[in-house]
Amino acid sequence: MRTRFIALAVLALVSIPTFGQDASPAPLASPTQTSSNEGQAPSESKGPSLDLTPGPDGTLSQEQMEQLLHVVADKDLENDKRQKDYTYVERDVQHNLDGKGDVKSTEIKTYDVLEVAGEQVQRLIEKNDKPLDAKEAAKEDEKIQKVIDKRKNESEEDRQKREKKQEKEREDGRKFVTEVANAYNFKLIGTEMVDGREAWVIDGEPRPGFEPHMKEAKFLSKVHGRVWIDKNDLQLSKMNIEMLDTISIGLMLARIHKGTRVMLEQTRVNDEVWLPKKLDFKVDARLALLKGYKIDGQQTYRDYKKFRTSTKIVGMGEVKEPQPNSSSQQP
C-alpha cells in the first residue's frame, strides 16, 4: 500500500520540527551540539544554538520553524541512509471495504526487505500468513536477479544519470522542507510518553493564504496532523495526519478524499537510528474517475538486523546471506 499520496503526506509532517518548553522556557541546544543531559551523542562539529523558545501562545516564529525543519529533515535523511544497513520483515494487512465501510475482503502479504546491488527491494515470502509455493518463490528470486543484472550491466553514462537524478530528488526534498515551514502554523500541545520515552506533542494546522512554489506542495493546505518528537533524540516517534478536503494527484489521475488518515510509529534501533515500527492507514480514493478504493489496514516492521556486505555485484547463485551484527536490536 505504497501510494505516492502516502509518501508525500508522510514527508509533509515528518518534517515538522521539534522544540522544548518547560515551566520556564529556555533555548534548547542545536542537535549538532553535545548535550550530556539529553543523552545525545557528541558531534564532530558544533553549530550555533537554536532558540526554540515558543511565544506566549505556544507557537514558533516563521524563522524558528524553517531552521528546525531543516535540522529534522537532515536527521530523517541520516535515518534513511542507515536503514540501508538493515534487513527486516514487513507484514502488510489490507482490508477492502464496501460503501458502508464493512470489510469485503482481506489481503495479507509478508516481505523480507533487503538491499540488493544498492537498491532496497522486497521479496514476498508469505501470502495470508502462508509460505509461497515453489513457483511463486522462484518468481521472487527472478525479480531480484533482474535488479542485480540491471546494476551489473549499468553503463557509466547511466550511472551518472542515476546519481544526478538522486541528487535532484535530495535538492527537491530540501526545497519541500521550506514549503512545509510556510504552509503550517505549529503549536506545542504538551508532552506524552511514547514507548516509555518522553516526547513533545506538536500540532500542525494549515496557514491561511499559503501559496506554494512547488506543485508537489499544493496539497499541504488540505492536510493537518499531530506529531510526537522524542525529547532526547529529537526524532519523530509518532505521527497522525488527516485529509481535510479532497486532493487530486496528476491530471485527475487520482483523487484522495476527505477523511483519509495515516498514523506512523517509529522505534529506536541499535541506539543509532529511528526506523518504522507500524503504519496504520484508512484511505478513500478514486483512480482516473473510474474505480473507487475504500481500504484500511496496517503495515508492521520487525526483526531489524544490521548487516555488512561487500559492494561487489554478483548473481543470485553467488549471493551470501547478510551477516547480522551482534548488537542488532529488534523493535
Describe the structure.
- This protein has 331 residues and is of the alpha+beta class.
- The protein has one domain.
- The chain has helices at 4-14, 62-83, 134-152, 156-183, and strands spanning 86-97, 103-116, 119-127, 130-131, 184-194, 197-206, 223-230, 236-243, 247-249, 254-256, 261-269, 273-287, 291-308, 323-324.
- Strands 1, 2, 3, 4, 5, 6, 7, 8, 9, 10, 11, 12, 13 and 14 form a 14-stranded antiparallel beta sheet that branches.
- Helix 2 packs antiparallel against helix 4 (156-183).
- The longest helix has 28 residues, at 156-183.
- It starts with a helix and ends in a 7-residue tail after the last strand.
- Mean pLDDT is 74; it is low at 1-48, 309-322 and 326-331.
* Count of the separate structural domains: 1
Shape descriptor reads globular
Structural class: alpha+beta
Number of continuous helical runs:
4
Q: Write down how many β-strands occur, each being a DSSP E stretch of 2 or more residues.
A: 14
Regions with little confidence, pLDDT below 50 for 5+ residues: 1-48, 309-322, 326-331
Helix content: 10-25%
Short descriptors:
331 residues, alpha+beta, 14-stranded antiparallel sheet
Reconstruct the topology from this structure.
Layout: H1 4-14, H2 62-83, E1 86-97, E2 103-116, E3 119-127, E4 130-131, H3 134-152, H4 156-183, E5 184-194, E6 197-206, E7 223-230, E8 236-243, E9 247-249, E10 254-256, E11 261-269, E12 273-287, E13 291-308, E14 323-324
Antiparallel strand pairs: 1-2, 1-13, 2-3, 3-4, 5-6, 6-7, 7-8, 8-11, 9-10, 10-12, 11-12, 12-13, 13-14
